[in-house]
Amino acid sequence: MKAFFRFLIVLLIIAAIIALCGLVSYNGLIRKDETVRQTWSDIDAQLQRRAELIPNLVNTVKGYAAHEEKIFTEVAQARENLVKAATPADKAAADAELNTAVGRLLAISESYPELKAADAFVRLQDELAGTENRIAVARTRYNEAVKIYNAAIRGIPGVYFAKNLGLESATFYEVPAGHEAVQEVPAVQF
Questions:
Q1: Residue 182 has what pLDDT?
Q2: How many CB atoms lie within 10 A of CB 69?
Q3: 185/190 Cα distance (integer angstroms)
Q4: What are the residue ranges in the chain where pLDDT is below 70?
Q5: Which residues, in sequence order, are CB contacts of 155 under 8 Å at separation 6+?
């Protein structure tokens, strides 16, 4: 009888340890999922911030280069595509398109010395450069969170909980095919 109680106690301890490991794993997966969501929200906020800066930049350039209508249309369309994009892949493609259009817009400014000297334009360029840096940092954090999360739901014991929780692999924020070369913002020289 004594051996039976010892066996029962050992069994209860093992069951408690397994339950505790399951609880810790469950909570860890939830935290990682929330981190991915939060870091995606950071990217989205910075992309939105940049999208809000673009019309001001376009209007400033328009005042000096009214005959460059094609680029203004391209920038507006690219901005609209970014605002409408929902998934990380769609956002990345729209972001690349907008980067290209804004790069061309800034290249046009090189032809207008009075524009390059305008305070509003310089401030907007600085704001845009700061936003680009924030986007780069947010992308890096998001991709790191995705890597940790995806590893957790594919590894043991996460693989046993992920499906029951409805958790699926998250998508990395990657540059779409054809946009491998990052557009460089032209240097402004006075």
A1: 43
A2: 10
A3: 16
A4: 66-67, 175-190
A5: none
Q: Return the closest-CA partner of residue 82 out of 71, 90, 74.
A: 90
- Residue 7 CA to residue 9 CA, distance in Å, equals 6
Q: Tokens 């507006």: give the residue.
A: 76
Tokens of 140: 């890096």
40 φ, ψ to 5°? -65, -40
pTM of the model: 0.69
Residue 149 pLDDT: 93
Tokens describing residue 160? 């046993």
Please name which of 98, 80, 73, 77 lies closest in space to residue 176, comparing C-alpha atoms.
98
Place of tokens 């069951």: 15
pLDDT in tens, 87-135: 888 888 898 898 888 888 888 777 777 777 777 888 888 888 898 899 9
Q: What is residue 9's predicted lDDT score, i.e. its pLDDT?
A: 92
- Amino acid identity, position 96: A
Distance between CA atoms of residues 96 and 101, nearest Å = 9
Contacts of residue 115, defined as CB under 8 A and 6 or more positions apart, other chains included, come to 60, 61, 63, 64, 65, 109, 121
Angle of CA points 186, 189, 190, to nearest 5°: 150
